[in-house]
Amino acid sequence: MDVSGVLEAHKQKFKSIAVEGKLIPVQYDLGLLAAFDENPVDTAELNRNKDEYLQALSRDNAQLLFNEIFQLQTISDDNGVMAMLPTPTTLLPREKPLPKPKPETRWEKFAKAKGIVNRKKERMVYDDASGEYKPRWGYKAINDDGTKDWIIEVPAGANPMEDQYGARREAKKERIDKNDKRRQRNMEEAAVATKMDQKAVNKGDRPNMDNVRSMKRREIENQILISKSSTASAGKFDASIKGDLKPKGIKRQFESTITDMSKEKAGNMSILDRVVGKNGEDLVNVRKAIKSTKSRH
Amino acid sequence: MRPLTEVETKTFFEKLAKYIGRNITHLIDRGDDTYCFRLHRDRVYYVSESVMRKATSVGRDQLISLGICFGKFTKTGKFRMHVTCLDYIAQYAKHKVWIKPNGEMPFLYGNHVVKAHIGRVTEDTPEHQGVIVYSMTDVPLGFGVTARSTSDTRKMEPTAIVVFHQADIGEYLRQEDTLF
Amino acid sequence: MVSAKKGAAKPASPQKNNKRKVASSKDVTSKKVKVAAGKGNKKAAKPSSDDSEEDDESWAYGAMSGSDSEVEEQDDEFVSAEEGSDIEVGALDDDFLGDEFAGSDEEGKTAMFGSDDEQEGEGEEDEEDIFASDSEESDDDDDMEAKSRKLDAAKLAEAEEAEAELQTNIMLENDKYVLPGDDHEILQSTDLQVVQARIQEIVRVLNNFREMREGNRSRNDYISQLLKDLCLYYGYNDYLMEKLFYIFPVSEAIEFFEANEVPRPITIRTNTLKTRRRELAQSLINRGVNLDPVGKWSKVGLQVFDSPVPIGATPEYLAGHYMLQAASSFLPVMALAPQEHERVLDMASAPGGKSTYIAALLKNTGMVFANDANKDRTKSLVANIHRLGVKNAVVCNYDGREFPGVIGGFDRVLLDAPCSGTGVISKDASVKTNKSEQDFQMLSQLQKQLILAAIDSVDASSKTGGYIVYSTCSVTVDENEDVVNYALKKRPNVKLVSTGLDFGKEGFTRFREKVFHPSISLTRRYYPHMHNMDGFYVAKFKKVSNKIPKKNEDTADPDEEEEFTPITEDSGKRSRGAKKAKAAAEKPEEAEKISFNADEDEELIRASQAKLLQTQKGIKLRPKKTAASSKD
């Protein structure tokens, strides 16, 4: 059976996959499935019939891109044949805006002012005693702030019976607590700073201490009020203390009695549409239909 | 006195739509005058804008009523229609029931409508549909909710309830103290 | 010696009693009488001296005790004889009883002392009559002969009276009716038929006083007697009776009182917002109601004669096709005649008959402010407003006197003022007795304040309106003409206009010692006996300008209040003269030229007043008046 006629007819229906007439070769970034055609646009043709010209141009370029993709190495698995894309070469602009600079901590500000620069210290240090590297701090640290010294000299004038190891542990704990407080303070200040006017933040102003305090007070008051109303009677029958905080009622905001009537009407109409539309009745808006027929006549 | 909030309007319209459906638009958007719904002491009043504007001069404690009262919001936030709105909903009602003269007084005493008392019913009234109850002389007597659809009603016994009583004009006498 | 003592008594033998009686009656001058009333406790009776007045008193007690209380007397002599024993005696008196009964019938006496009611009643009546006539003249009671003579005289009088009663029908026109004399107590005791007969007689005499008066009896004698009888017969208190009596000519007053005893016909008003009178009548007739249009004057009223169903609970009523409303309360609204698109205030609106009528006349356009001072009554007001389908009403709960302050500028105001209700006695008979002078004073003061508030609430520059209607369901003058007169005086920027009602009696322009503004004849009065509706009063004002003209210091001579306090006839005349002078002196140039004597010029003054009225300008107070003319 000769199917060449059929094949020929079939071929006639489609264009050739070969694209010609590109003076400058088209550039590809297959990692992004992108093709860049730098050939100048035929403005005369574009002006004559824009749609057809653009359509033909995109078709040709898309064909070229597909040709390129089909050149790639392929693997075949359950999902079908996959082409392995190379890594993209084109840099894309960032999707999200740049993060805002974090508010500086007090130390950072001080260090900046004094020109102190952080000197990087290694995490692991060599331990002469055991002859191996040990972490400078943390778990299994080399000498946890002198608490691992095998002998400690009693300081002059100190009680000889005092536990010097215990004293060092205490001192370390205090330092940790102090640092923790500072960290907390920095966080609070940062929280206020983010709420502050953006201009002030940009200027690098530190948050006002008063703001911080009032914010803290407000937070505490809120917590007290919540705890007060967290009884079985929602705080109704609890003994009240003089000068106690009073929970502020929910202040509901209603519209004023005399309003813009057209606005009110429109609002009511939209609510009505939601209410009645749900029931699916009255698909034809009779009122509108009547109005439109009226206006036509 | 204040306008209804969005939630209130929705609750209110949902109830009203059971009786007059989309015809609520005729209440909101009237040709003759601007009318509005106003809430005063839990009750919803339907009143023309000009009357409402004048009524703002009356103090909250002294204002007893204005325009026509459509019903009231219960403490649980539901809306309860009062018989006082009968004039309006009778005007725009889609489904109606006419009762015979011997059924008038039982209905006006607050009883449900039984099949034996039914004179006429609007065709194709579905089940649980709000209906207006008329006397045979076309005087609106109140409103209720159908127990069965019109087609089901045909098979029922004469003593079976066809329309559940919701409100009737007898309440003007019976509930004068609580209605207003 | 006789004294009354109480406590559990040993029944004494009749003989002993009699004996004691006789003895004591002989010993009148030296007797001591102790009387105590009540049963349970032993009270020390107070000893009385033996003078005749005290004696009378003891008599009175004795007579009364015959009916309900027990009085025991204890003879001192007997006490000395049988010590510690109490002697029970019924109602006893020394001399009279001894004298009256001792000789005649002993059994009768004991029966009287005892519990036989019939006999006791008889005895009592006699006793009372005698006592009544006796008490008038307070001379020697101990004289038994005089007593018996008096008794005879009283019996005679009674017989005569009975005869007169019998002859009432055949009495000729010229027969003179003899006033029953000064003995009021006798009059009180007689029964109602006698009283009625007497009322008729006195009315007959008063109607033709010159010919029928009896000798030198003055008109006042007759009237005071008549007032007493009317109070008794119809059950009014004295104050109210006097107030009402003088409003009418004598025979009309009786008709008025008679009409107050009969209920007025039930009337209903068609609610034209929902139906028409013909349709309503048809549907009510179908229910078996017997009715008729109320009269030519109203196109919405129906009069119900009888009904097999309660007229206030028919489906038509509940559907708001009609309102149960007295015919009289149509009148103020008809006088008000509200026009469409007007803003109308009803100051005292509960239960809403008039407010809904106003709304019906407005055809639900414009708006109605229905106010009532009583919060409980606003419920029925709101119910009626909703039932009748009134869509433009605002119901509020203010004291009417606050009104221009709340909201003013109305086109029309209806003030159906709270009143004593003397026009609706047939509905509420309690008015007859529970209204005192203070009530009337308070009410008229309130009405005066309200009418000023009503006037101030109206916008005179309204294109269609500017009217105030004042109405009461009372017939007394100080709630009606007096209040209207006060309003005219206080607010010279209003004038009375015709009410537009083509029936009803004209308001008084003078009443007893008071003289009112002549334009008050434009107001209308309605009486139960004349119009077969409740007693009613309607006045309609037109507000001419929104400014209240200020009065000059010169004219502020007599204090404003003083003009309304009751004045004596003398001062009344003077003020009448002064008022005439004012009225005549409207044109200043005239007043300056002429100094006049009001009495001489009375005819001229009256003529000029009539002229003024014809031009419908109302009486304006002269802006400035010279001291000379005001004093005149």
TrEMBL record, chain A:
Pfam family, one: RRS1
Name of this chain's protein: Ribosome biogenesis regulatory protein
UniProt family annotation: Belongs to the RRS1 family.
Alphabetic keyword roster: Nucleus, Ribosome biogenesis
Any one GO cellular component localisation term in the record: nucleus
Locations listed in the record: Nucleus
Species of provenance: Mortierella alpina
Extent of Basic and acidic residues compositional bias: 166-188, 196-208
Organism lineage string: Eukaryota, Fungi, Fungi incertae sedis, Mucoromycota, Mortierellomycotina
General function of this protein: Involved in ribosomal large subunit assembly.
Positions of region (Disordered): 166-210
GO biological process: ribosome biogenesis
From TrEMBL, chain B:
Subcellular location: Nucleus, Nucleolus
GO MF entry, a single one: RNA binding
InterPro entries given in the database record: NIP7_N, Nip7_N_euk, PUA, PUA-like_sf, PUA_sf, Ribosomal_synth_fac_NIP7, UPF0113_PUA
GO terms under biological process: ribosome assembly
Any GO CC annotation of this UniProt entry: nucleolus
Main location: nucleus
Domain of life, source organism: Eukaryota
Entry keyword set: Nucleus, Ribosome biogenesis, RNA-binding
Pfam families: pre-PUA_NIP7, UPF0113
PUA domain segment(s): 95-170
Purpose: Required for proper 27S pre-rRNA processing and 60S ribosome subunit assembly.
Family: Belongs to the NIP7 family.
Subunit structure: Interacts with pre-ribosome complex.
Protein name per its UniProtKB record: 60S ribosome subunit biogenesis protein NIP7
Organism of derivation: Mortierella alpina (Oleaginous fungus)
Gene (name only): NIP7
From TrEMBL, chain C:
Residues annotated as binding S-adenosyl-L-methionine: 348-354, 372, 399, 416
Taxonomic superkingdom: Eukaryota
Active site: 473 (nucleophile)
Acidic residues bias locations: 69-105, 115-144, 555-564
The UniProt record lists the keyword Nucleus: yes
GO MF, one example: rRNA (cytosine-C5-)-methyltransferase activity
Stretches assigned to the SAM-dependent MTase RsmB/NOP-type domain: 256-544
Main location group: nucleus
Annotated Low complexity bias: 1-16
Biased composition regions of type Basic and acidic residues, renumbered to the chain: 583-593
Biological processes annotated in GO: maturation of LSU-rRNA; rRNA base methylation
Keywords annotated in UniProt: Methyltransferase, Nucleus, Ribosome biogenesis, RNA-binding, S-adenosyl-L-methionine, Transferase
Pfam families with a match to the protein in the record: Methyltr_RsmB-F, RsmF-B_ferredox
Database matches in InterPro entries: MeTrfase_RsmB-F_NOP2_cat, MeTrfase_RsmB-F_NOP2_dom, Nop2p, RCMT, RCMT_NOP2, RsmB-like_ferredoxin, RsmB/NOL1/NOP2-like_CS, SAM-dependent_MTases_sf
GO cellular component labels: nucleolus
Family (UniProt): Belongs to the class I-like SAM-binding methyltransferase superfamily. RsmB/NOP family.
Protein name: Nucleolar protein 2
